[in-house]
Design brief:
Radius of gyration: 26 Å
Structural class: mainly beta
Largest sheet: 8 strands, antiparallel, barrel
Distance between the termini: 83 Å
Number of strands: 9
CATH class: Mainly Beta
């Protein structure tokens, strides 16, 4: 005796689940004005305290960003001195991060006098910028710069000095 089994239900192909959507990244390509306001200074060997008068001061950079998906490259140019630095970073859904890759040699601060009369140079070691988008399309965040403190005119390291800034960025 043969048993015939038939399937019940529809002959239609199941509807595939939608593919997960790719997150929309902030689009930051273009030329921006970045305003930095110094909020603190730490370290500095014999320079400690010598630059505290710069806390609260603001200065502007022009920031030219190129974007390819999440990958960012940027060039900052200080509006007061013309010093340029190169950056790489990553864009996310509501923020982006830039890390310093190189600066012109004149980004270093040379022949700074300590309270004891010794002379020191500050040489750029690292820097990072972390900015979050605001509701109005501007960005706000922080920047941290670290310098190597060396005996003036030499490469003899005697300490480090860090600067912290609040940052805003507008087109």
């Amino acid at each position: 005796m043969a048993v015939i089994v038939t399937a019940c239900g529809s002959d239609s192909t199941p509807t595939p689940s939608p593919a997960p959507s790719t997150p929309t990244r902030v689009q930051v390509a273009g030329i921006w004005t970045m305003t930095e306001t110094r909020t603190g200074i730490t370290g500095g060997e014999c320079l400690e305290g010598a630059l505290n008068s710069t806390i609260g001061t603001s200065f502007n950079d022009t920031l030219n960003i190129t974007q390819n998906g999440a990958a960012l490259t940027a060039v900052t140019t200080a509006q007061t001195s013309g010093v340029s630095c190169n950056w790489t970073g990553t864009a996310d859904t509501d923020r982006f991060v830039l890390n310093l890759t190189s600066c012109q040699a004149n980004a270093n601060q040379i022949n700074l006098r300590c309270a004891n009369g010794n002379m020191r140079d500050l040489r750029v070691a690292s820097s990072g910028i972390n900015l979050v988008i605001n509701a109005n399309g501007t960005y706000a965040g922080t920047k941290a710069d670290t310098y190597t403190v060396v005996v003036a005119g030499s490469l003899t390291q005697v300490g480090t000095m860090s600067f912290n800034e609040n940052v805003t960025m507008t087109k």
